[in-house]
Write a structure and sequence with these properties.
Elements: H1 2-26, H2 96-116, H3 125-132, H4 138-144, E1 162-164, E2 174-180, E3 183-192, E4 195-203
Antiparallel strand pairs: 1-2, 2-3, 3-4
Signal peptide: 1-25
Region (Disordered): 28-89
Biased composition (Low complexity): 31-52
């Protein structure tokens, strides 16, 4: 009996296992659905290119950086820098205004030497001095007050005066060259509130 029961039990176990496997294959277990939240793709807004305002190129300067600026002239009236100046050459006026100024000083030099010249016989020293002294500045008045007019070498002015170049500013000193019957004289002049005044008179070549 035991020999029959064991095979029968084994057959039953196999049959149950086959049935279970067959039923499981007909109804497979459905996998649980996994809820996945929809993901939104990050959208990047299209870049908008904003044109930058065009900056105009700087216009070239009318004066180059390395252009030399002419320095103010320090050449005295009538002179040109670097030239060898003839001490007897007349100064050249740079414009009409300076030409007129030169003419005023030239006339003042001629007027003074005309009255300073040795006077004719019969003219007293007081008469001579009364005409000479108004042309002189204060220093020259003291220097020439004791002059004897009979010792003045020249007797007349023989031509027009010319202005000579000097190193001093024109407001401080003007120098004129005047011809006389014994040679040239140099007349130094200054400007005062009262007008042009003579400060010194010397024969050309004396003390120069």
């Amino acid at each position: 009996m035991r020999r029959v029961a064991k095979p029968l039990l084994l057959v039953m176990i196999v049959a149950v296992a086959l049935w279970f496997m067959q039923d499981h294959s007909k109804h497979p277990a459905e996998p649980k659905a996994t809820a996945t939240a929809p993901t939104m793709a990050a959208t990047t807004p299209p870049s908008v290119s904003t044109p930058s305002p065009s900056v105009p190129a700087p216009s070239p300067s009318s004066t180059p950086d390395n252009a030399e600026v002419p320095a103010s002239s320090t050449v005295d009236e009538g002179e040109h820098e670097g030239d060898v100046v003839d001490p007897t050459a007349a100064a050249v006026p740079r414009d009409a205004t300076q030409r007129a100024r030169f003419a005023t000083y030239e006339q003042a030099a001629v007027d003074f030497l005309t009255v300073f010249a040795r006077p004719a016989a019969g003219v007293t020293r007081e008469q001579w001095w009364s005409k000479v002294s108004p042309h002189l500045d204060e220093v020259a008045v003291d220097a020439y007050e004791g002059t004897d007019p009979a010792t003045v070498p020249f007797t007349t002015v023989t031509g027009p005066a010319v202005i000579l170049p000097t190193d001093a500013p024109a407001d401080l000193l003007m120098l004129a060259r005047v011809p006389t019957d014994v040679g040239f004289y140099r007349v130094e002049m200054t400007t005062s509130p009262d007008g042009i005044r003579i400060s010194r008179v010397t024969p050309e070549g004396a003390g120069q």
